[in-house]
Automatic annotation (TrEMBL):
The keyword Hydrolase applies. PANTHER family: N-ACETYLMURAMOYL-L-ALANINE AMIDASE, N-ACETYLMURAMOYL-L-ALANINE AMIDASE AMIC. Signal peptide: none annotated. This is N-acetylmuramoyl-L-alanine amidase. Residues 289-397 form the MurNAc-LAA domain. The lineage of its organism: Bacteria, Pseudomonadati, Bacteroidota, Sphingobacteriia, Sphingobacteriales.
Amino acid sequence: MFIIKLYLYAKPMKKNLITASSFLLILLGFWSPLLAQEAWIGRTTGDLPYIEYSDGVVRLGADKMGFLDTAIRMVVVDSVGDRYKVKLSQNWDCYIPKYFVRRGFAEDPLGEGKFLSGSWHLSAKDNYDVLTVSLPDRLPYRSYQLTEPNKIVVDVFGVNSNTTWITQLRQTKIVKSVYREQVEKDVFRIHIELKGRQNWGYSVGYNNKSLRIAVKHAPQKKGIKNLFIAIDAGHGGTAKGAVSRKGTEEKVYTLKFAKELESYLKKKGVKNVYLTRTDDVDIATTKRVLMLREVKPDLLISLHLNASSRPEVKGVSTYYHHNGSRKVSQHILDEMLKLGLNEFGLIGNFNFLLNSPTEYPNSLVEIAFLSNEEDEKRILDEKFHKQTAERIYRGIVRWLKEVQ
């Protein structure tokens, strides 16, 4: 009303005449911030939906908060390019690619403070300890790993604690203790303390409206021979990866290294080895993660070759995202350096999709630089393929001796 009165008052003044178009712009300028804040309810959809901490744009995407299950309740408050901004709680926002959200659900009011946690139940099934937490809806969450002490932390957003009953059965094998904490007014934290030195993997999802956290048991028998190891040869098909000045393609040699590692592991008595690809074919990273979820390995080794715009850069590096994969990545790097390669580093919090799953420890090995002449000579040498396989094997063995 104030703007309309201002317009009528100014109309007779020729020097300060506000045209109809100017008035419309003023009106839109006044209301647009309010319209932008109008929230709506959506639900996650698609394969491997994930949320991000920011709307940053970098080569591997913004820093991922984690994967989510489908049909998770999303309170969308804004549109930012190809992402939605989501209100998780009073103090927490996140971003999600738009193709992971379907809108609607007018029957689901926004509400506030209506979500209360219920009872917990901890038991064991197959090769997992399973914690279920009763909730009134499929609410968003994030999880992270600690190593000292060895534990899993899950934050559920928009929840107030009303948990007065936690049943813990003695049949559990890897979970030592569970307890809850209300860390903010509407952020409910689940603590899961683990036995042993290694987090062997876990999944978070919903069974109807109950949050289900399945924590994988340690392998029943010790030693690398009893480990189920998956090997991922980076790129393939039309995805060539890095290409050297001489035309050497990353996709060709990652497969050679992967097959050599498979052969060496089997030679050393490892019975269960799985390759995500065995030929020069396109397999999307999302599909690789889904494949690995199905086969449930104990460990994933992903093989790549590096490249830089500066030809003098060379060396080996290993990458991990979650803290539970740091030790194996460190041991593999230490062994690879014994081949006389330069150290490019141990890279943590790496945002590559294949490093992001929590279901199993994993390490990505950038064996050497295709863009460096000296490193490329090594990459082309079959003897180096065998040496690399041996060093990765020895790194895994050293890691197992530390954690089993």
